[in-house]
Specification:
four-stranded antiparallel β-sheet, Isoleucyl-tRNA Synthetase, Domain 1, globular, Gyrase A, domain 2, 15 strands, 3 domains, alpha/beta, RNA-binding
RNA sequence: GCGCCCGUAGCUCAGUGGACAGAGCAUCGGCCUUCUAAGCCGAGGGUCGCAGGUUCGACCCCUGCCGGGCGCACCA
């Protein structure tokens, strides 16, 4: 449902009409649903429409159309801000507002400014949003970029919806992958010094491993060749993971994504949290021993089978870390946990839900958002990647080539659980074909307009001081309507954890702006322009021109400037939620 | 074999159970003496994978099938 102030106003007017009709005995129901108020599919049907009559037709035991008429009559009688109320089959209620109603939207935007659209639905609930969390075994790639953009946008969106959000990166700095990293670096190190060695079977082959070994040789005071292989390996592992985490932080910072906390998996071991968490479960008989391994009774919580947490060889599994980690999350006081995972881990979700339930929390305490793969294209042709051979396009490569803004916008143009095609050529293009520029250009265009206006002595006034009744053109009303639906959009996007809706909204709003801008002038032509025009030939192609010939009074200029100011505010608010900049100049 | 996700215009994708299913790209044809043409306008294009069901009403919910992706470890 939309929560824009106009939509709310109409919804409550309908509710009132329902209750009044009920009192007068023309409706029978004891309870009515909250009326859904939306834009009708076609503008000519009215400003707003509601399907409430069809929803209650059944309980009223009357045809929807008849119910709609009852509501319409009541609305018409009691509601002064509606210019027209009509009914359309099969039972839609269409209303047209008095034009001045829409102007309150502009006041609302001016009053709330960069908080326009924000809500309190989160009620200050504390949310831990964990994302990216890539192993520090190499640089971040495209897929991580998508997760990073989504996480950042979600954090901003949820904060705007009244949640208290912390962003966290879980560093997988323990276990097999780290051992492989250590071995790989050590092998390159030995190689560098002409020592014979065999490169580990599943090691990391990328050139960055050689770079790490070289940097280590340069910057470390101890010579690794003087150490025994075990110590040398450990040195390599620690150095490499430290360096890679540092590089990952840098990449993310350049991408415009920062975290409140970086949580080390290794710290779960050293602090004894793993044993503590497992002990907690054991006391409630949710952990048992069999075949020399320790198991978690996840099957009690709708997982398909029990899972090993400590192997026969005494090592903990990844799940053990996750149990301890998520236990710690809720113990730190977070009421809602959101994890953003690659879709290839979806099979892991029931297990993790079982963990949460085992600690006594409900299903809705943990929400896992899955992110599908990114297919990288260049001018329509697939860019081949092979992680095995260490050949993949890094996030850094993409940011360098197309910029952080374009990259983020592209990552947020699709629902997260569908595959995404990312065309580097398109993302770089500086034209209307490139969606990110299309939206940013709308913002910059307005900034430029305001600069010119100021030079010419037109200052954007406050909404209250502007002659807004001059705003009657369809393109103007359409803009205001679109602005009015922004709060509802944010609420729905936050509830669904779907920032891509904001992307689509902005493209639409920018489109409306560009159309308006093309059809109408805001500032009067300069004196010399006017002279040119009058000395020019008489207009032959009046018909063919899309431009609206209109008298541009000072009032109209002032009113349009105020309207466009609010448009600019909303574009900016939207872009900032996506983590994309709103440039003043392009 | 079991589980999850996806099948919507030539391509990439939107579409909280509501009206004649939308956008961008691509194709074709137009618009710069205008406050930013990084812009605008017009045209063509569809069995919403298939078949049932629920509903006053289904692209949306349920069941089955077909096609694609991904999972099903004492790996992470």
């Amino acid at each position: 449902m939309s929560a824009g102030i106009i939509q709310e106003q109409v919804a409550s007017a309908i509710t009132n009409a329902l209750l009044q009709a009920q009192q007068r005995g023309s409706l029978q129901s004891a309870h009515f649903p909250q009326p859904v108020v939306d834009f009708p599919k076609r503008e000519e049907w009215g400003d707003l429409s509601s399907s409430v009559a069809m929803l209650i037709a059944k309980q009223e035991k009357r045809p929807p159309l008849e119910v709609a008429h009852v509501i319409a009559d009541q609305l018409q009688a009691s509601c002064t801000f509606l210019e027209k109320v009509s009914v359309a089959p099969p039972g839609f209620l269409n209303v047209t507002l008095r034009p001045d109603c829409w102007l309150s939207v502009l006041e609302e935007i001016e009053r709330t400014g960069d908080r326009y659209g924000h809500s309190k639905i989160g009620q200050g609930q504390r949310v831990l949003l964990e994302f990216v969390s890539a192993n520090p075994t190499g640089p971040l790639h495209m897929g991580h970029g998508r997760g990073a953009a989504l996480g950042e946008a979600l954090a901003r969106l949820l904060r705007a919806a009244g949640y208290e959000v912390d962003k966290e990166y879980y560093i997988n700095d323990a276990g097999r992958q780290m051992k492989l990293l250590a071995d790989s670096v050590y092998a390159r190190y030995l190689e560098m010094h002409g020592r014979e060695c065999s490169f580990p079977e599943d090691g990391y082959h990328g050139d960055y491993i050689k770079t790490l070994a070289q940097a280590m040789d340069r910057e470390k005071s101890i010579h690794l060749l003087t150490l025994n292989p075990e110590d040398a390996r450990r040195e390599c592992g620690q150095w490499a993971s430290h360096e890679l985490v540092r590089a990952i932080k840098e990449d993310l910072a350049q991408f415009g994504v920062e975290f409140e906390t970086w949580y080390s998996e290794a710290s779960l071991f050293s602090s004894g949290r793993i044993q503590a968490a497992l002990h907690d479960l054991e006391q409630r008989d949710l952990v048992f021993t069999q075949d020399g391994a320790t198991w978690f009774r996840s099957s009690r919580f709708q997982d398909e089978k029990d899972r090993v947490v400590c192997k026969q060889d005494g090592d903990y599994t990844y799940l053990a870390s996750d149990i301890a980690y998520h236990f710690d999350k809720v113990r730190r006081g977070y009421e809602w946990l959101i994890n953003i995972w690659g879709a290839d881990h979806h099979g892991y979700v029931p297990r993790m839900q079982a963990v949460i339930k085992a600690f006594g929390y409900g299903d809705d305490c943990l929400r896992v958002v899955l992110v599908q793969m990114v297919r990288l294209l260049r001018g329509g042709k697939k860019v081949e990647m092979s992680k095995r051979a260490g050949e993949f396009v890094t996030l850094q490569d993409v940011v360098d080539e197309v910029g952080a803004d374009a990259a983020k916008f592209f990552f947020l143009m699709r629902r997260s659980d569908t595959h995404l095609e990312f065309d580097l050529e398109l993302a770089k293009k500086q034209s209307a074909e490139n969606p990110v520029y299309y939206v940013q250009y709308a913002h910059a265009r307005l900034a430029s307009l305001f600069r010119t206006a100021q030079e010419r002595g037109f200052f954007v006034s406050s909404v209250g001081g502007a002659p807004l009744s001059a705003l009657v053109q369809p393109e103007e009303i359409r803009l205001i309507k679109q602005l009015s639906s922004f709060p509802g959009l944010l609420e729905a996007s936050a509830k669904a954890l779907e920032p891509h809706r904001i992307t689509f909204y902005l493209l639409e709003l920018a489109g409306f702006l560009h159309v308006f801008y093309y059809k109408h002038r805001v500032l009067p032509p300069r004196v010399d322009d006017a002279k040119e025009e009058s000395s020019g030939e008489p207009d032959h192609d009046e018909e063919s021109s899309a431009l609206v010939r209109e008298v541009l009074s000072r009032e109209l200029t002032m009113a349009r400037l105020v309207l466009l100011k609010q448009v600019q505010t909303v574009i900016k608010n939207g872009l900032l939620l996506l983590g994309v900049s709103a440039p003043e100049k392009m």
